[in-house]
């Protein structure tokens, strides 16, 4: 249809001033998992990646070495992948030529097909006590970032490093948290400065399991308890994780870095342990991880960091039967080698009850009642960048394989192909995924680029976009079930340049 200088006469006048205004109401947290491979009974990486994509709510994965087979397995899934540099490579990474070669070998061949979002330089390096590793940690991070910048990837991939709680010399009460002397000024302050300058998070591995006793087990498991009163702030803590995170925050704040994001790089609970270990067991593991997921995504935050969510990685995806150490070290897994859950934490997507070949599907009506999330749609946030939206499309189109029309409508020749823009296609894809997966809030996160709206796109809505030279008007419509929707037609009057 030819462009017109006026709106088509059949558009109702009452809609001419109606806009879809999207606010940032999504749950910003998300659940990731640590994918360790110190085992001899694990399924192939490609099977693992497909399982996570299609059968779980996990949308972030951390691996512990730059294994090309693992990195390649997550190609075209959209799952956000974090790669860890082994500790023994840290000193060599302080050399720019080695860092550049590392990026060429382990990152560039797989990006952007694999959604690589972060590189972790070592793991709990300060706790090793190795002076060479500790002294080269920050230089290695800086050099690796320079190598990313040389490949024009520094704004796409972050650099950080995870720490154990052993970096704290004081953690009780949480308001008095401090880093170990010597490390605080000479190592951690430069490290925190690097993270701030590169917009990267501080990463910590809190494990309430290792910090609890018989008396504090309920406190560690988020169960009802008397709590702990911080005498300095008069705040009563009701769970150990909040206290651990706030102790880290206090230590960071004392160095002038209270503004940095904190990411939980590892946390978990073993389903089996030594008889002398308090709390190890399947029931407690299920309770901890279930309550953890609810808490970090609730938006409540912690007493010293209120109103926020925490990007969190559960340890771990599988039990690892070849790991040394006590029994618990081999039994943190959420799934067995046959991909069946070790226990139920609500991490699997809803499935139809038609047998073992069931696939993820929209939530079914419950007793004839209203479907969960009915009257809600997922759309891209205003200001979301095109690269992020393209990654959302790639993720969704992999996840929806075999589910209804999938991404067919936004392929060339499909009913929603026009307008042929990333933003328009993302609008379709993100909402299709949200509807297909059961309208869970976390299914509209998309790394903080999605937002849930109650404005019904099944109405003929007029969206106007104004800029200095151009006015566009797009009409939206949807199919009969009120689920997926797409641009139906476009009209505009545009002049370029003066």
UniProtKB/TrEMBL annotation:
Enzyme class: hydrolase
Membrane topology according to the record: Lipid-anchor; GPI-anchor
Pfam family, one: X8
Leader sequence segment: 1-29
Catalytic reaction equation(s): Hydrolysis of (1->3)-beta-D-glucosidic linkages in (1->3)-beta-D-glucans
GO biological process, one term: defense response
Keyword tags: Disulfide bond, Glycoprotein, Glycosidase, GPI-anchor, Hydrolase, Lipoprotein, Membrane, Plant defense, Signal
Annotated localization: Cell membrane
Bias kind Polar residues: ranges: 351-360
Database matches in SUPFAM superfamilies: (Trans)glycosidases
SMART domains associated with the record: X8
Residues annotated as domain X8: 376-472
GO cellular component, one term: plasma membrane
GO MF entries: glucan endo-1,3-beta-D-glucosidase activity
Location of region: Disordered: 347-374
Family recorded in the similarity comment: Belongs to the glycosyl hydrolase 17 family.
Protein name: glucan endo-1,3-beta-D-glucosidase
Organism field: Linum tenue
Lineage: Eukaryota, Viridiplantae, Streptophyta, Embryophyta, Tracheophyta
């Amino acid at each position: 249809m030819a462009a017109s200088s006026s709106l088509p006469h059949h558009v109702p006048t009452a809609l001419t001033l109606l806009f879809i205004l999207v606010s940032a109401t999504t749950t910003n947290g998300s659940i990731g998992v640590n994918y360790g491979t110190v085992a001899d009974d694990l399924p192939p990486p490609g099977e693992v990646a497909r399982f996570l994509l299609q059968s779980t709510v996990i949308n972030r994965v951390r691996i512990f070495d730059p294994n090309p087979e693992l990195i390649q397995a997550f190609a075209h899934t959209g799952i956000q992948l974090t790669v860890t540099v082994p500790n023994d490579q840290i000193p060599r990474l302080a050399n720019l030529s080695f860092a550049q070669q590392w990026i060429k070998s382990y990152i560039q061949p797989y990006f952007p097909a694999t959604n690589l979002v972060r590189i972790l330089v070592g793991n709990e390096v300060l706790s090793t006590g190795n002076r060479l590793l500790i002294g080269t940690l920050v230089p290695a991070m800086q050099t690796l970032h320079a190598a990313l910048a040389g490949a024009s990837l520094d704004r796409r991939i972050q650099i950080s490093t995870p720490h154990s709680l052993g970096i704290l010399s004081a953690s009780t009460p949480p308001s008095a948290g401090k880093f170990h002397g010597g490390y605080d000024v000479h190592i951690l302050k430069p490290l925190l400065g690097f993270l701030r300058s590169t917009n990267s998070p501080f990463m910590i591995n809190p494990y309430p399991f290792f910090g609890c006793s018989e008396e504090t087990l309920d406190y560690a498991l988020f169960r009802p308890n008397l709590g702990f009163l911080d005498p300095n702030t008069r705040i009563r803590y009701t769970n150990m994780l909040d206290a651990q995170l706030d102790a880290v925050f206090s230590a960071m704040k004392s160095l002038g870095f209270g503004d940095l994001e904190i990411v939980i790089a590892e946390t978990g609970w073993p389903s089996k342990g030594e008889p002398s270990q308090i709390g190890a067991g399947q029931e407690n593991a299920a309770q901890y991880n279930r309550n953890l997921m609810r808490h970090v995504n609730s938006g409540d935050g912690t007493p010293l960091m209120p109103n926020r969510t925490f990007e969190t990685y559960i340890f771990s995806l599988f039990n690892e039967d070849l790991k040394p150490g006590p029994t618990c070290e081999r039994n943190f897994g959420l799934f067995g080698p046959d991909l069946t859950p070790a226990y139920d934490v609500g991490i699997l997507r809803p499935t139809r009850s038609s047998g073992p070949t069931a696939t993820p599907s929209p939530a079914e009506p419950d007793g004839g009642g209203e479907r969960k999330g009915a009257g809600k749609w997922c759309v891209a946030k205003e200001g979301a960048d095109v690269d992020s939206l393209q990654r959302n499309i790639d993720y969704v189109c992999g996840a929806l394989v075999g589910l209804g029309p999938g991404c067919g409508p936004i392929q060339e020749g499909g009913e929603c192909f026009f307008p042929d823009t990333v933003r328009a296609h993302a609008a379709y894809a993100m909402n299709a995924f949200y509807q297909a997966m059961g309208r869970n809030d976390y299914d509209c996160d998309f790394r903080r680029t999605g937002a849930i709206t109650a404005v019904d796109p099944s109405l003929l809505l007029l969206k106007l976009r104004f800029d200095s030279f151009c006015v566009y008007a797009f009409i939206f419509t949807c199919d009969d079930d009120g689920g997926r929707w797409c641009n139906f037609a476009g009209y505009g009057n545009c002049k370029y340049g003066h």
